[in-house]
Amino acid sequence: MKIALAQINPTVGDFAGNAKKILEYAARAEALGVGLVVFPELAVCGYPPADLLEKASFVARAEEVAAELAEWTAGAGRPAILCGTVMATRANVGKQVRNVAALLDGGKLSFVQQKMLLPFYDVFDEQRYFEPATEQALVCVRGEPLAITICEDAWNDKGFWPRQMYPVDPVEKLMGKWEAQSTEIAGQPRVILNISASPYWQGKQQVRQSMLAALARRHGAFVAMANQVGGNDSLVFDGTSLVIRPDGEVVAQAASFVEDLIVFDTEDGAAVAVEKPVDEVAAMWDALVLGTRDYVRKCGFSKVLVGLSGGIDSALVAAIAVEALGKENVIGVGMPTEYSSLGSIEDAKKLAKNLGVRFELLPVHDVFAQFQFLLQPLFKGTPFGLAEENLQPRIRGTLLMALSNKFGALVLTTGNKSEMSTGYCTLYGDMVGALAVIGDVMKTRVYALSRYVNRAGEVIPRATISKAPSAELRPGQQDTDSLPPYEVLDPILEAYVERYCSAEQIAEEQGVDVALVRSVLQLVEKSEYKRQQAAPVLKVTRKSFGMGRRFPIAVKVQV
After folding, report:
1. Is the peptide bond before 48 cis (omega within 30 degrees of 0)?
2. Which 3 state secondary structure label does DSSP give 73?
């Protein structure tokens, strides 16, 4: 049988739009002569729906749409549809909602596989909403037996992971049923289908492929995963749907970060195409572009504002915004004070010209002077310091939000992960905005991405990349006045924020003084109150700030 994997980009709650997309891809698959077309986890309602699942009307609408989609399959010669959706449990105990793979065939709902393993770690909190399955069953489509799993159900293979997260392995259970029915299905190829909403983080694509290949080899089966693509709030889904033969070889792979449709034949493993994986810098760039585009558009906006300082962070965010939304939808705003260098102002202008975006210059010297004059009676006798420095980004934040309100454009913040980690950012200043585009990108990675932007020619001015980083809030200021050099700082932060290493472990691993490490970790701990007031961060690493990293604000931690 020919099976199609339809890698689509659903929007949470957009039942009409998601159903339309499902039918469009089902029709494309029909034209290719397939018997079954497979869609991602919760494709009907979008993933993750979060507390929308607690609304009975939301679940009821999902069930109605699934029934409407089933009607399409009644047409002569049409393929069956396997898609993820939610259904009510209608039980007197336990959770009220099921995460299911619904098989729609012959005009009706013909089979339901309920998700068994419900992740409750990092960004996942499915145990909050769903009732887990207690049983798994094989199903036949067009006379061919299939083992159907939902995302996490395939992520507990004891042959791949050194430590299992769950006491049960749904795939192993299904393969046990296969063995029990061996005489009835003799000669039929083993096929494990997995519908997923597996978010991207740096390195995830390779981990996912290796894990599924190990699963294919262990069970001597074809493994086909249909993964969601697109951005939903902080999460970015890369797609990269794939088919793996029983020998572990990838025979079909969809493109990453775009919608796609791939077809394979279970009889001979023949595939339409194999997409080569991209390198990690390119993948992160694509993830940031997709996440920005979908966040802005799914929130109902089309235009964005970026404060352009002449620095590398704002330059990278502007380049991402142009790639995501088009130059006509990006407005750059320069807001220099007396401490802004002429070079920075010129770099901002040059960047805007290279990108082809509208650029407005709003000098804030006079506004800053007025604030200082107003505060002078209270600040009298105190030296120029942090309060005066932070006034400048807060003035800029106020102006950006005024422009946002007037012109209906979202403000993109420009702070990176190194700054957010250490609190080297200003609440209600440079943290003002709707989306922290590079809030999960360390400063050293910002440079790598900026070089990637310039791979075909200068977009980000070379001077922006080569000059020493500075907030330019006082004369001669450089980031190294407050922080270690980023090539020293970032590995410390990565070890502490993403891997939870201790100060002693980091000092030994990085070959740096433990006192320096502790000083950095103290900055991280003291800045939690800022991070919990930050804009949503696009997640592109294993552990980002936001919903997947939960720490108390008022706490005394020994570092």
Report:
1. yes
2. coil
Active-site residue numbers?
Answer: 41, 115, 151
Residue reference for tokens 């109150």: 529
> How far is Cα 60 from Cα 66, in angstroms, rounded to an integer?
10
Residue pair 11/298 in contact (Cβ under 8 Å)? The answer is yes
CA atoms of 7 and 230, how far apart (whole Å): 10
Separation of alpha carbons 72 and 54, rounded Å: 29
The string of pLDDT tens digits covering residues 259-288 is: 999 999 988 665 555 656 668 999 999 999
Is residue 141 helix, strand or coil?
A: strand
Burial grade of 163 (CB within 10 A; 0-12, 13-18, 19 or more) = exposed
* pLDDT 10s digits, 453-512: 999 999 999 999 999 999 888 998 899 999 999 999 999 999 999 999 999 999 999 999
**Strand, helix or coil at 192?**
strand
Is the per-residue pLDDT at 558 higher than 90? no
Distance (Å, whole) CA 151 – CA 227: 9
Angle at which helices 386-407 and 365-379 pack, to 10 degrees? 130
**What is the distance between the alpha carbons of residues 310 and 467, in angstroms, rounded to a whole number?**
10
Pick from 249, 203, 243, 250: nearest CA to 227 = 243
Read off the tokens for 424: 């080297």
Tokens of 242: 């794939």
Buried b / exposed e over 497-507, threshold 16 CB at 10 Å, is bbeebebeebb
Angle of helix 280-298 relative to helix 443-453, nearest 10 degrees? 90
How many other C-beta atoms are found inside a 10 Å radius of the C-beta of residue 353?
12
Strand duo 2-7 + 36-38: pairing: parallel
**How is residue 97 annotated by DSSP?**
E
DSSP lists the bridge partners of residue 144 as 141
Task: Please classify residue 540 by burial: count the beta carbons closer than 10 Å to its beta carbon, then call 0-12 exposed, 13-18 middle and 19+ buried.
Answer: buried
Report yes or no: 79 and 30 within 8 Å, Cβ to Cβ.
yes
| Residue 211: φ, ψ to 5° | -65, -45
Instruction: Please report which helix (H) or strand (E) contains residue 359, including its range.
Output: strand 358-361
Question: Could you tell me if residue 257 is left (phi over 0), alpha (psi between -120 and 50 degrees) or otherwise beta?
Answer: left
